[in-house]
Prior knowledge:
Elements: H1 2-28, H2 35-38, H3 48-75, H4 89-92, H5 95-98, E1 123-129, H6 131-148, E2 153-159, H7 161-174, E3 179-185, H8 187-190, H9 221-224, E4 231-235, E5 239-241, H10 245-249, E6 261-265, E7 289-297, H11 298-304, H12 306-321, H13 328-338, E8 343-346, E9 352-353, E10 372-374, H14 388-399, H15 419-430, H16 438-445, E11 450-451, E12 468-475, H17 481-488, E13 493-499, H18 501-513, H19 515-518, E14 523-529, H20 537-546, E15 552-555, E16 560-562, H21 566-576, E17 584-588, E18 590-592, H22 604-613, E19 617-618, H23 633-638, E20 643-644, E21 654-658, H24 676-684, E22 688-691, E23 697-699, H25 706-713, H26 715-736, H27 741-748
Parallel strand pairs: 1-2, 1-4, 2-3, 6-8, 9-10, 12-13, 12-15, 13-14, 17-22, 18-23
Antiparallel strand pairs: 4-7, 5-10, 6-7, 11-14, 15-21, 16-23, 17-21, 18-19, 20-22
Helix pairs in contact: 1-3, 6-7, 12-13
Pfam family, one: Glyco_transf_8
Subcellular location: Golgi apparatus membrane
Organism: Urocolius indicus (Red-faced mousebird)
Amino acid sequence: MLRSWRTKLKLLLATVTLAVLLSWLYLFVGSLEYGRFLLPPPCLGSQPARALEQEALASRVRRVEEENQQLRSQLGQAPAPAEGSEGSPAWGASAEDRDPPRGESGNGTACPRQRPVHKCELLHVAIVCAGHNASRDVVTLVKSILFHRKNPLHFHFITDSVAHQILQTLFQSWMVPSVHVSFYNADDLKASTCPLHCPPEVSWIPNKHYSGIYGLMKLTLTKALPPNLSKVIVLDTDITFATDIAELWAVFGKFSDKQVIGLVENQSDWYLGNLWKNHKPWPALGRGFNTGVILLLLDRLRRLGWEQMWRLTAERELMSMLSTSLADQDIFNAVIKQNPALVYRLPCFWNVQLSDHTRSEQCYTEVSDLKVIHWNSPKKLRVKNKHVEFFRNLYLTFLEYDGNLLRRELFGCASMPSPPSDQLQQALEELDEDDPCYDFRRQHLTQHRVHLFFLQYEFLAHPEPTDVTLVAQLSMDRLQMLEAICRHWAGPISLALYLSDAEAQQFLRYAQASEVLGARRNVAYHIVYREGQFYPINLLRNVALANAQTPYVFLTDIDFLPMYGLYEYLRNSIQQLELPQRKAALIVPAFETLHYRLTFPKSKAELLSMLDMGSLYTFRYHVWPKGHAPTDYAQWRTATVPYRVAWQPDFEPYVVVRRDCPRYDQRFVGFGWNKVSHIMELDAQEYELLVLPNAFMIHMPHAPSFDISKFRLSAAYRRCLQALRDEFHQDLSRRYGAAALKYLTADRSP
């Protein structure tokens, strides 16, 4: 009898345990009122850790059920307890019988078993990007994707001409393995390129959104992207990923046969029409959907006649709405309102929207819930949000993250063919690591990332034939020279800045805070990202030179201030000397001061007076007179017309030449022979060297660079520089034959 009561007691305890576990499971799977925001549908499979926890809990419940069955068998012929007591048959039912039918989803359709994404499957991502600012934003987005990704990627960029140039150069120089990039001209999508009587694409749609006409481009993706592309993830540029994008790609496997678009519900009250009095938004299904993250099944959309569908909807709604307020998002929502079966509702952690008055806090309870963060407020990082500091820090992590670290191979997947990458790898393998000058040769082969036109720049549609651009390079420690140069030079400027990712953002803040720099739209800043131990001075010069927009360039260094009015003087000289009809290099005489504070001379007469008083000197007369002595400063003092000088060994003046002049030799890195070699090649190509009589520039003092210190202290450094000089002479001889022998003889003379 005692044993029987003990058995019944065990059964009672087991039943209570089962009840507690079932209650916990009920809460865990998201049956609370807002659970659908916090948890994926049962078959989503996008949170493997949570799915494993659910499976473990269900397994525990099944074990308790088995124990109950064993206890019942021990009771033998004991009478069945009354209904509702601890032995109720209701508790004897299996856990699966009491769960909601398997296959139910938050989209109201039976969802198939999710197909896992193979680690080598190519994922396609489409992004609309136009202008300088969006090109900067998209780099942060791409970094966040590359940081988490485990799959090959194909980025499809719909761009204007500015973003195309910037991003094409960036990705070509970035050379990330298993990443392919395609570009599509947004200008072709603004208006139709088909024959007459063909309707325009999106230019006919009035749009009040700050994104302008480019905010409508996502409507045209079925036509813009290749016809054999069946599906794509579409992203805004103000997105940050906090997980592997393959998890989002896997959601395509959950679409029903009728669903073609995956979207997250809008997290503000915009489409409810209650934000202010007389607020009349476009029609939407419930709260509407946000189009910052879209999953598109392109093949199905094409079969449905998507282009005609959205066009007819837009035409109908514009009759009363007159314009869109949220660009493509209004039209997407109007289409879905009429065809709700088309949409697959993504869990909202795939688009946590950080606009004002957002409900985004319901999308996450802990960091692991976050998948995609969307800065969809015009205020961007200054938006008001309870957890904005956390989101801002996550964004800044990728903003300042060293992009060089993302050049990692995807092991186990065949790399996409990349001839430039293969050639570089072969050249690196041919280097001799025992060579004492290995580091110099390795630096020469380093592939630096290049971000052209980092800030707003107004391109010259038709530059004048005598126009000239100041070309220079600098690093972070010379930023203070920028404002002074802009005050002295009114013409266009092309600068290459050697910065880390974090320093690039410091420079951005500096430039945006400067009234002097902010007032200029003809200064082009090109970021060359730091990598390696030497300063790649001639690479930087070539980047700035190649991206000048005028027929002529003034090749200078950032430590020099040009005389006031030099820009106009050079333009007049180019015309008067008929430079377009002759091959010539105009020399701007260089001087220097040892004083950080200088009353800058306003004329040649004032400069000569300061030269006589000892407050100015000819450049480097006391440490390297050979570099500028051939300018013949004595003749310059009294000259009134340009005069010709001959090349001499180690001559390195600052010159004005045509933009198509020879490029600098990039083997010379750090300090030494970087300008000498360039002037030597100008002479080999028979450029006239003409000194301008009324032009001058003054070098401002600064601390010695790290590279010049290495040159002075290291004999090995100097030996390697000599080896590079010898190799340069040999190359010069091969290109110019006997005419180049004089350089070799002159270089070896005492």
